[in-house]
Amino acid sequence: MTGGMEQRRHGLLWAHPGRDLPRPDGCLTFADGRIVAIDTAPYAGKERLIMPILVNAHDHGRGSRPLDFGAADSRLETWLWDLWKTPRTDVYLTHLLAFANMAASGVGAVVHNHLPQGPDMIAEARQVARAARDIGIDLAFVCPVIDRNLIGYDGGRAVLDALDESSAQRLRALTRLPPVEEQIAMVEAIAEQIEGEGTTVQYGPPGPQWLSPHGAALVGRAAERTGRRVHVHVLETWAQRRWMENHHPEGIHAYFEDAGLLGPRLAIAHGVWLNACERAALAAAGVALALNASSNLRLGSGIAEFGTLARDGLKMGLGMDGMALDDDSDMLREVRLAARLFAAAGQLDVKACEEAALQSAFSEGARLICGAPAPGLEPGAPASFVELSMEALSPLPPGSMMHVARLAVGRWRREAVTSVTVRGREIVRDGKVAGIDMERACRELAQQMQKGAMRDMDWIAIAQHAAAAGLEPSGAA
């Protein structure tokens, strides 16, 4: 063998969480970013659990979280207005912190749905990609494509009618959208700028209520031409379900099929209110779904029927959506929460739900990035793995490998992570993200948020006016 020097990691080796159990005295050998061998060798050091990286299958890269600037948890259609208050901050710094927080909890790859701060999305994409490279996580950059209903599912009529003419004109100007053709061209320009090892670009219609059938068809043709993946928010809330029934009663699967999008290149997020016909059609077409347990709880969207989704054959990943339950970007906690919520629905037993949540987080979530599940820890696979301190999980040594697995899923959290390696590069060492002073970066971002909030007070007043009038960007009757 030629190339870089071989390195080894010893411990309890969990090659395929959800499919097998950890093995004792494991030895993982890697070089040149790939796993060379998986062996058994005696180990006398402190016990650690070695497992594949986690995939955050749906997120928005929030270095500053909504609660920090007063966007309180509420129903999605109300909460979206509060997001207009987001202070403008340095794009690179914002995403550097977001990706660092993910990495600290074992995330090595993320599907990032970008929320532009300004008109130059190409420049923003370059900064986001640089942040991901500097932290060392793999990135699927999802570009929004929108042509309708940006300020309300009714076209914005209710909100505009509530504002004085000056505010309404300002709102129209702020929400004017370029033609879909230009947005698709921008996606391709972004891909030319940032794609490379560990970074891909996807089309990102944020939802059918925000992209017309004509616009969706243009995205479908572009995806067919380029082979690029498509990532769409789907039926997150009951208001969206009602809107779908009013505007596309044939169902979400028909909307995608008519646009030429229904197929294995398509990934969807949330899916809380999918009906039986839609679930079956999406599963048959090979569509993957990102579940977002924390976000759906915090925004009152509901709990996806995991057992039903699984039985219908949908492949599922897990995402934090920038809204982890404790606002800590802890993907390990997200896995635990998802497993418990799945079991609470009573459709599958606890063990089956744990196994399904593990497969979603460690393997199936990769489908939303590249169309195929992650291979786990096997010779020839990328050397991408997480190391957890068993001592941080329990003061007592586990009695069996089943005990190790149950202990991990029952207690793991970011504080237990000692090391994260992505394609052979150690990006977290001794629990610290390599190459970044987190405290300093947080202080700098906080200062920018204060200045940004002051600069944006005129727009915040408009958003608060609309909210005070009791208007929501739903328009669903």
UniProtKB/TrEMBL annotation:
Q: Which UniProt keywords apply?
A: Hydrolase
One Pfam family it belongs to: Amidohydro_1
Residue ranges annotated for the Amidohydrolase-related domain, each copy included: 50-425
Q: Does the keyword RNA-binding apply?
A: no
Family recorded in the similarity comment: Belongs to the metallo-dependent hydrolases superfamily. ATZ/TRZ family.
Which PANTHER family is this protein grouped with? Answer: AMIDOHYDROLASE-RELATED DOMAIN-CONTAINING PROTEIN, AMINOHYDROLASE SSNA-RELATED
For this entry, the protein name equals Amidohydrolase
Q: What is the lineage of its organism?
A: Bacteria, Pseudomonadati, Pseudomonadota, Alphaproteobacteria, Acetobacterales
